[in-house]
Description:
CATH superfamily of the largest domain: P-loop containing nucleotide triphosphate hydrolases
Strand content: 5-15%
Function: Involved in regulation of DNA replication.
Number of helices: 18
Order of helices and strands: HEHEHHEHEHHEHHHHHEHHEHEHHH
Number of strands: 8
Pfam families: AAA_22, Cdc6_lid, WHD_Cdc6
Domain Cdc6 C-terminal: 302-385
CATH topology of the largest domain: Rossmann fold
Keywords: ATP-binding, Cell cycle, Cell division, DNA replication, Nucleotide-binding
Distance between the termini: 35 Å
Family: Belongs to the CDC6/cdc18 family.
Amino acid sequence: MGMFERDTDIYRDRDALREDYQPEQLVGRDExxxxxxxxxxxxxxxxxxxxxxxxxxxxxxxxxxxxxxxxHLQSDAAGYDDIDLSVVxxxxxxxxxxxxxxxxxxxxxxxxxxQISTTGYPRAAVYDMLWNELDTNGGTILIVxxxxxxxxxxxxxxxxxxxxxxGNLETAKTGIIGxxxxxSFREDLSPKVRSSLCEEEIHFPAYDATELQQILxxxxxxxxxxxVLEEGVIRLCAAYGAKDAxxxxxxxxxxxxxxxxxxxxxxxxxxxxxVRQGRTSLERGRIREGIxxxxxxxxxxxxxxxxxxxxxxxxxxxxxxxxxxxSMAERAGINPLVARRMRDHLSELIMLGILDVTERNEGRxxxxxxxxxxxxxxxxxxxxxxxxxxxxxxHESIEKLLERESTSTLQDYQ
Length: 414
Protein backbone atom coordinates (compact mmCIF):
# COMPACT_ATOMS: atom_id res chain seq x y z
CA MET A 1 0.00 0.00 0.00
CA GLY A 2 1.39 3.45 -0.96
CA MET A 3 1.87 6.41 1.33
CA PHE A 4 -0.89 8.33 -0.50
CA GLU A 5 -4.29 6.87 -1.29
CA ARG A 6 -7.13 8.51 -3.17
CA ASP A 7 -9.73 9.96 -0.80
CA THR A 8 -13.24 9.99 -2.27
CA ASP A 9 -15.65 9.69 0.68
CA ILE A 10 -16.39 13.42 1.12
CA TYR A 11 -15.71 15.10 -2.21
CA ARG A 12 -16.91 14.23 -5.66
CA ASP A 13 -15.23 17.27 -7.30
CA ARG A 14 -13.48 19.54 -4.78
CA ASP A 15 -12.35 21.90 -7.54
CA ALA A 16 -15.97 23.07 -7.92
CA LEU A 17 -15.43 25.11 -4.74
CA ARG A 18 -12.40 26.94 -6.11
CA GLU A 19 -12.40 30.55 -7.26
CA ASP A 20 -11.56 29.71 -10.89
CA TYR A 21 -14.48 27.26 -11.31
CA GLN A 22 -16.96 28.57 -13.89
CA PRO A 23 -20.53 27.31 -13.31
CA GLU A 24 -22.92 27.02 -16.25
CA GLN A 25 -25.15 29.69 -14.69
CA LEU A 26 -24.34 32.55 -12.32
CA VAL A 27 -26.80 32.79 -9.45
CA GLY A 28 -27.56 35.73 -7.19
CA ARG A 29 -26.65 38.40 -9.74
CA ASP A 30 -29.64 38.58 -12.12
CA GLU A 31 -30.07 42.37 -12.02
CA UNK A 32 -26.36 43.11 -12.45
CA UNK A 33 -26.03 40.57 -15.28
CA UNK A 34 -28.99 42.12 -17.14
CA UNK A 35 -27.47 45.59 -16.86
CA UNK A 36 -24.02 44.30 -17.84
CA UNK A 37 -25.43 42.42 -20.84
CA UNK A 38 -27.11 45.61 -22.06
CA UNK A 39 -23.82 47.53 -21.88
CA UNK A 40 -22.12 44.86 -24.01
CA UNK A 41 -24.89 44.75 -26.65
CA UNK A 42 -23.19 47.28 -29.00
CA UNK A 43 -20.46 44.69 -29.66
CA UNK A 44 -22.94 42.29 -31.27
CA UNK A 45 -24.46 45.19 -33.18
CA UNK A 46 -21.05 45.91 -34.71
CA UNK A 47 -20.89 49.28 -32.95
CA UNK A 48 -18.23 51.01 -30.87
CA UNK A 49 -18.20 49.26 -27.45
CA UNK A 50 -19.15 51.05 -24.28
CA UNK A 51 -16.52 51.66 -21.63
CA UNK A 52 -17.71 50.02 -18.42
CA UNK A 53 -16.65 50.52 -14.81
CA UNK A 54 -17.57 47.84 -12.25
CA UNK A 55 -17.12 48.46 -8.55
CA UNK A 56 -17.91 46.62 -5.35
CA UNK A 57 -16.15 44.80 -2.54
CA UNK A 58 -14.02 41.69 -3.02
CA UNK A 59 -15.96 38.49 -3.66
CA UNK A 60 -19.23 40.01 -4.91
CA UNK A 61 -19.06 38.57 -8.43
CA UNK A 62 -17.52 41.35 -10.56
CA UNK A 63 -14.80 39.23 -12.18
CA UNK A 64 -16.98 36.11 -12.31
CA UNK A 65 -19.75 38.03 -14.09
CA UNK A 66 -17.22 39.49 -16.52
CA UNK A 67 -15.76 36.10 -17.42
CA UNK A 68 -19.24 34.56 -17.71
CA UNK A 69 -20.65 37.25 -20.03
CA UNK A 70 -17.51 37.62 -22.14
CA UNK A 71 -17.41 33.84 -22.72
CA HIS A 72 -20.99 34.04 -24.02
CA LEU A 73 -20.25 37.21 -25.98
CA GLN A 74 -17.28 35.62 -27.75
CA SER A 75 -19.29 32.50 -28.52
CA ASP A 76 -22.22 34.48 -29.90
CA ALA A 77 -19.99 36.91 -31.83
CA ALA A 78 -18.42 33.95 -33.65
CA GLY A 79 -21.78 33.42 -35.35
CA TYR A 80 -21.55 36.78 -37.16
CA ASP A 81 -19.25 37.07 -40.18
CA ASP A 82 -18.88 40.84 -39.77
CA ILE A 83 -17.69 40.74 -36.14
CA ASP A 84 -14.09 40.05 -35.23
CA LEU A 85 -13.94 40.16 -31.42
CA SER A 86 -10.80 39.93 -29.29
CA VAL A 87 -10.75 39.99 -25.47
CA VAL A 88 -7.69 40.80 -23.36
CA UNK A 89 -7.90 40.35 -19.58
CA UNK A 90 -5.19 41.96 -17.49
CA UNK A 91 -4.94 41.90 -13.70
CA UNK A 92 -3.33 45.13 -12.55
CA UNK A 93 -2.14 43.81 -9.20
CA UNK A 94 1.59 44.56 -9.19
CA UNK A 95 1.29 46.96 -12.13
CA UNK A 96 1.31 50.45 -10.67
CA UNK A 97 1.91 52.68 -13.70
CA UNK A 98 0.29 53.38 -17.05
CA UNK A 99 3.66 52.60 -18.64
CA UNK A 100 3.63 49.06 -17.22
CA UNK A 101 0.04 48.50 -18.37
CA UNK A 102 0.85 49.75 -21.88
CA UNK A 103 3.90 47.47 -22.25
CA UNK A 104 1.92 44.47 -20.99
CA UNK A 105 -0.81 45.19 -23.54
CA UNK A 106 1.72 45.49 -26.35
CA UNK A 107 3.14 42.10 -25.40
CA UNK A 108 -0.34 40.55 -25.27
CA UNK A 109 -0.63 41.14 -29.02
CA UNK A 110 2.93 40.11 -29.92
CA UNK A 111 4.58 36.74 -30.36
CA UNK A 112 6.83 35.48 -27.57
CA UNK A 113 9.85 36.17 -29.79
CA UNK A 114 8.93 39.84 -30.23
CA GLN A 115 8.23 40.99 -26.66
CA ILE A 116 9.35 44.41 -25.40
CA SER A 117 10.92 45.06 -21.98
CA THR A 118 9.03 46.91 -19.27
CA THR A 119 11.71 49.62 -19.08
CA GLY A 120 13.85 51.67 -21.43
CA TYR A 121 11.30 53.18 -23.83
CA PRO A 122 9.81 56.68 -23.80
CA ARG A 123 6.14 56.43 -22.84
CA ALA A 124 5.06 58.04 -26.11
CA ALA A 125 6.93 55.32 -28.02
CA VAL A 126 5.18 52.57 -26.04
CA TYR A 127 1.81 54.15 -26.78
CA ASP A 128 2.68 54.31 -30.49
CA MET A 129 3.52 50.58 -30.39
CA LEU A 130 0.21 49.91 -28.62
CA TRP A 131 -1.86 51.79 -31.21
CA ASN A 132 -0.04 49.93 -33.97
CA GLU A 133 -0.73 46.54 -32.37
CA LEU A 134 -4.39 47.35 -31.79
CA ASP A 135 -4.92 48.53 -35.37
CA THR A 136 -2.99 45.56 -36.77
CA ASN A 137 -5.23 43.22 -34.77
CA GLY A 138 -8.28 45.18 -35.92
CA GLY A 139 -11.90 44.40 -35.22
CA THR A 140 -13.50 44.95 -31.83
CA ILE A 141 -11.15 44.67 -28.85
CA LEU A 142 -12.35 44.55 -25.25
CA ILE A 143 -9.63 45.25 -22.70
CA VAL A 144 -10.45 44.17 -19.14
CA UNK A 145 -8.39 45.85 -16.43
CA UNK A 146 -9.11 43.92 -13.23
CA UNK A 147 -8.08 45.60 -9.96
CA UNK A 148 -7.65 48.80 -11.96
CA UNK A 149 -7.29 50.78 -8.72
CA UNK A 150 -3.66 49.57 -8.48
CA UNK A 151 -2.71 52.01 -11.28
CA UNK A 152 -1.31 55.11 -9.60
CA UNK A 153 -1.35 57.43 -12.63
CA UNK A 154 -4.36 57.61 -14.90
CA UNK A 155 -2.72 58.34 -18.27
CA UNK A 156 -3.62 54.95 -19.78
CA UNK A 157 -7.16 55.27 -18.44
CA UNK A 158 -7.55 58.41 -20.52
CA UNK A 159 -5.57 57.36 -23.59
CA UNK A 160 -7.29 54.02 -24.21
CA UNK A 161 -10.94 55.16 -24.15
CA UNK A 162 -10.06 58.26 -26.22
CA UNK A 163 -7.69 56.58 -28.70
CA UNK A 164 -10.14 56.50 -31.61
CA UNK A 165 -11.47 60.03 -31.01
CA UNK A 166 -7.89 61.35 -30.78
CA GLY A 167 -6.95 59.79 -34.13
CA ASN A 168 -4.58 57.18 -32.66
CA LEU A 169 -6.67 54.27 -33.95
CA GLU A 170 -8.16 53.91 -37.42
CA THR A 171 -9.51 50.36 -37.71
CA ALA A 172 -9.76 48.92 -34.21
CA LYS A 173 -12.77 49.58 -31.99
CA THR A 174 -11.72 49.35 -28.37
CA GLY A 175 -13.78 49.11 -25.21
CA ILE A 176 -12.43 49.23 -21.66
CA ILE A 177 -13.86 47.28 -18.73
CA GLY A 178 -12.41 48.54 -15.45
CA UNK A 179 -12.98 46.49 -12.28
CA UNK A 180 -12.27 47.91 -8.83
CA UNK A 181 -12.68 46.83 -5.21
CA UNK A 182 -11.99 50.38 -4.03
CA UNK A 183 -15.10 52.56 -3.79
CA SER A 184 -13.02 55.74 -3.54
CA PHE A 185 -10.96 55.00 -6.69
CA ARG A 186 -13.57 56.46 -9.02
CA GLU A 187 -13.74 59.70 -7.03
CA ASP A 188 -9.95 60.12 -7.21
CA LEU A 189 -9.91 59.98 -11.02
CA SER A 190 -9.57 63.22 -12.93
CA PRO A 191 -12.88 64.45 -14.43
CA LYS A 192 -11.73 63.77 -18.01
CA VAL A 193 -10.82 60.16 -17.16
CA ARG A 194 -14.00 59.60 -15.16
CA SER A 195 -16.22 60.71 -18.06
CA SER A 196 -14.49 58.25 -20.42
CA LEU A 197 -13.71 55.21 -18.27
CA CYS A 198 -16.98 55.36 -16.32
CA GLU A 199 -19.21 55.78 -19.37
CA GLU A 200 -21.37 52.96 -17.99
CA GLU A 201 -21.19 52.08 -14.28
CA ILE A 202 -22.40 48.94 -12.53
CA HIS A 203 -22.32 48.61 -8.76
CA PHE A 204 -22.13 45.08 -7.35
CA PRO A 205 -23.56 45.13 -3.81
CA ALA A 206 -22.61 42.60 -1.15
CA TYR A 207 -24.42 39.26 -1.35
CA ASP A 208 -27.04 38.65 1.30
CA ALA A 209 -27.38 35.32 3.13
CA THR A 210 -30.06 34.01 0.75
CA GLU A 211 -27.95 34.72 -2.34
CA LEU A 212 -24.90 33.11 -0.72
CA GLN A 213 -26.95 30.00 0.06
CA GLN A 214 -27.89 29.77 -3.64
CA ILE A 215 -24.23 30.05 -4.68
CA LEU A 216 -23.04 27.52 -2.10
CA UNK A 217 -25.80 25.05 -2.91
CA UNK A 218 -25.00 25.26 -6.64
CA UNK A 219 -21.34 24.47 -6.00
CA UNK A 220 -22.01 21.89 -3.26
CA UNK A 221 -24.21 19.84 -5.60
CA UNK A 222 -21.14 19.37 -7.80
CA UNK A 223 -18.42 19.26 -5.14
CA UNK A 224 -19.78 16.82 -2.54
CA UNK A 225 -21.28 13.38 -2.63
CA UNK A 226 -25.01 13.33 -2.00
CA UNK A 227 -25.91 13.28 1.68
CA VAL A 228 -22.42 14.25 2.93
CA LEU A 229 -23.40 17.75 4.06
CA GLU A 230 -25.57 17.78 7.15
CA GLU A 231 -28.58 20.06 7.07
CA GLY A 232 -27.62 23.53 8.21
CA VAL A 233 -24.00 23.50 6.99
CA ILE A 234 -24.69 25.62 3.90
CA ARG A 235 -26.94 27.93 5.88
CA LEU A 236 -24.18 28.45 8.47
CA CYS A 237 -21.51 29.10 5.84
CA ALA A 238 -23.83 31.62 4.17
CA ALA A 239 -24.58 33.34 7.48
CA TYR A 240 -20.86 33.74 8.19
CA GLY A 241 -20.32 34.97 4.62
CA ALA A 242 -23.07 37.58 4.96
CA LYS A 243 -21.43 38.75 8.18
CA ASP A 244 -18.06 38.89 6.39
CA ALA A 245 -19.23 41.67 4.04
CA UNK A 246 -21.20 39.36 1.71
CA UNK A 247 -18.09 37.79 0.22
CA UNK A 248 -18.92 34.68 -1.85
CA UNK A 249 -15.25 33.77 -2.16
CA UNK A 250 -14.85 33.59 1.62
CA UNK A 251 -18.05 31.54 1.92
CA UNK A 252 -16.78 29.04 -0.63
CA UNK A 253 -13.37 28.89 1.09
CA UNK A 254 -15.15 28.20 4.37
CA UNK A 255 -17.24 25.38 2.89
CA UNK A 256 -14.08 23.85 1.40
CA UNK A 257 -12.22 24.18 4.70
CA UNK A 258 -15.08 22.49 6.55
CA UNK A 259 -15.00 19.66 4.01
CA UNK A 260 -11.23 19.33 4.38
CA UNK A 261 -11.49 19.16 8.19
CA UNK A 262 -14.18 16.48 7.91
CA UNK A 263 -11.98 14.51 5.49
CA UNK A 264 -8.93 14.85 7.75
CA UNK A 265 -11.02 13.60 10.68
CA UNK A 266 -12.23 10.63 8.57
CA UNK A 267 -15.78 11.81 9.27
CA UNK A 268 -18.70 10.53 7.23
CA UNK A 269 -20.46 13.91 7.20
CA UNK A 270 -19.60 17.60 7.20
CA UNK A 271 -21.25 19.14 10.27
CA UNK A 272 -21.67 22.60 11.82
CA UNK A 273 -18.67 22.08 14.10
CA UNK A 274 -16.42 21.59 11.07
CA VAL A 275 -17.67 24.94 9.76
CA ARG A 276 -16.91 26.70 13.06
CA GLN A 277 -13.42 25.19 13.22
CA GLY A 278 -12.83 26.18 9.61
CA ARG A 279 -13.95 29.76 10.21
CA THR A 280 -11.53 30.24 13.10
CA SER A 281 -8.66 28.77 11.09
CA LEU A 282 -9.36 30.83 7.94
CA GLU A 283 -9.95 34.08 9.80
CA ARG A 284 -6.72 33.72 11.77
CA GLY A 285 -4.83 33.12 8.53
CA ARG A 286 -6.46 36.06 6.72
CA ILE A 287 -5.75 38.44 9.57
CA ARG A 288 -2.10 37.39 9.87
CA GLU A 289 -1.57 37.64 6.12
CA GLY A 290 -3.39 40.98 5.83
CA ILE A 291 -1.74 42.62 8.83
CA UNK A 292 1.65 41.21 7.85
CA UNK A 293 1.46 43.13 4.56
CA UNK A 294 0.59 46.50 6.12
CA UNK A 295 3.00 49.38 6.55
CA UNK A 296 3.72 50.73 10.03
CA UNK A 297 1.12 53.45 9.46
CA UNK A 298 -1.40 50.79 8.42
CA UNK A 299 -0.82 49.04 11.74
CA UNK A 300 -1.31 52.29 13.65
CA UNK A 301 -4.56 53.11 11.81
CA UNK A 302 -5.89 49.63 12.59
CA UNK A 303 -4.82 49.88 16.23
CA UNK A 304 -6.64 53.23 16.49
CA UNK A 305 -9.89 51.81 15.09
CA UNK A 306 -9.60 48.67 17.23
CA UNK A 307 -9.28 50.69 20.46
CA UNK A 308 -12.25 52.85 19.47
CA UNK A 309 -14.19 49.63 18.78
CA UNK A 310 -13.37 48.27 22.23
CA UNK A 311 -14.68 51.51 23.72
CA UNK A 312 -17.97 51.09 21.88
CA UNK A 313 -17.33 54.08 19.62
CA UNK A 314 -17.69 52.35 16.25
CA UNK A 315 -18.93 52.80 13.56
CA UNK A 316 -16.63 55.81 13.49
CA UNK A 317 -15.83 58.51 10.93
CA UNK A 318 -12.26 59.04 9.74
CA UNK A 319 -12.16 62.49 11.35
CA UNK A 320 -12.71 60.76 14.71
CA UNK A 321 -10.10 58.08 13.99
CA UNK A 322 -7.47 60.70 13.22
CA UNK A 323 -6.82 62.05 16.78
CA UNK A 324 -6.34 58.51 18.11
CA UNK A 325 -4.10 57.57 15.16
CA UNK A 326 -2.06 60.79 15.53
CA SER A 327 -1.51 60.14 19.22
CA MET A 328 -0.33 56.59 18.52
CA ALA A 329 2.02 57.74 15.75
CA GLU A 330 3.59 60.24 18.14
CA ARG A 331 4.03 57.52 20.78
CA ALA A 332 5.72 55.36 18.14
CA GLY A 333 8.08 58.23 17.34
CA ILE A 334 6.97 58.75 13.73
CA ASN A 335 5.27 61.63 11.98
CA PRO A 336 1.53 61.06 11.40
CA LEU A 337 0.24 61.07 7.84
CA VAL A 338 -2.05 63.76 6.48
CA ALA A 339 -5.76 62.96 6.64
CA ARG A 340 -6.05 61.78 3.03
CA ARG A 341 -3.18 59.33 3.32
CA MET A 342 -4.65 57.99 6.57
CA ARG A 343 -7.94 57.38 4.71
CA ASP A 344 -6.00 55.42 2.08
CA HIS A 345 -4.97 53.01 4.86
CA LEU A 346 -8.59 52.73 6.00
CA SER A 347 -9.53 51.80 2.42
CA GLU A 348 -6.79 49.16 2.36
CA LEU A 349 -8.11 47.63 5.59
CA ILE A 350 -11.57 47.49 4.04
CA MET A 351 -10.26 45.67 0.98
CA LEU A 352 -8.52 43.18 3.26
CA GLY A 353 -11.84 42.56 5.01
CA ILE A 354 -10.44 43.59 8.40
CA LEU A 355 -12.62 46.70 8.57
CA ASP A 356 -16.11 47.27 7.27
CA VAL A 357 -17.50 50.54 5.91
CA THR A 358 -20.96 52.06 5.74
CA GLU A 359 -21.81 54.95 3.43
CA ARG A 360 -23.95 57.64 5.08
CA ASN A 361 -25.88 60.41 3.36
CA GLU A 362 -27.42 63.15 5.46
CA GLY A 363 -28.62 65.17 2.52
CA ARG A 364 -27.57 68.67 1.58
CA UNK A 365 -26.72 69.72 5.14
CA UNK A 366 -24.73 66.71 6.34
CA UNK A 367 -23.37 65.50 3.01
CA UNK A 368 -22.01 62.03 2.31
CA UNK A 369 -19.45 60.36 4.56
CA UNK A 370 -18.16 56.92 5.55
CA UNK A 371 -18.17 55.14 8.90
CA UNK A 372 -15.73 52.38 9.79
CA UNK A 373 -16.04 49.37 12.08
CA UNK A 374 -14.08 46.20 12.87
CA UNK A 375 -15.37 43.22 10.88
CA UNK A 376 -13.11 40.44 12.19
CA UNK A 377 -12.55 38.89 15.61
CA UNK A 378 -10.77 41.55 17.74
CA UNK A 379 -8.86 38.85 19.66
CA UNK A 380 -7.40 37.47 16.45
CA UNK A 381 -6.51 40.97 15.29
CA UNK A 382 -4.72 41.89 18.50
CA UNK A 383 -2.79 38.61 18.47
CA UNK A 384 -1.36 39.57 15.07
CA UNK A 385 -0.38 43.07 16.23
CA UNK A 386 1.94 42.25 19.12
CA UNK A 387 4.82 44.35 17.73
CA UNK A 388 2.60 47.42 17.29
CA UNK A 389 1.13 47.10 20.78
CA UNK A 390 4.64 46.80 22.21
CA UNK A 391 5.82 49.86 20.26
CA UNK A 392 2.89 52.12 21.14
CA UNK A 393 1.93 50.69 24.49
CA UNK A 394 -1.17 48.89 25.73
CA HIS A 395 -4.22 51.11 25.39
CA GLU A 396 -6.57 50.71 28.36
CA SER A 397 -9.44 49.66 26.06
CA ILE A 398 -7.69 46.43 25.02
CA GLU A 399 -6.46 45.19 28.41
CA LYS A 400 -9.33 42.70 28.79
CA LEU A 401 -8.92 41.71 25.15
CA LEU A 402 -5.28 40.85 25.74
CA GLU A 403 -6.21 38.82 28.83
CA ARG A 404 -8.76 36.77 26.84
CA GLU A 405 -6.32 36.32 23.95
CA SER A 406 -3.61 35.16 26.38
CA THR A 407 -5.99 32.67 28.01
CA SER A 408 -7.12 31.38 24.62
CA THR A 409 -3.52 30.91 23.44
CA LEU A 410 -2.68 29.00 26.64
CA GLN A 411 -5.64 26.69 26.11
CA ASP A 412 -4.51 26.01 22.53
CA TYR A 413 -1.22 24.63 23.85
CA GLN A 414 -2.77 22.50 26.61
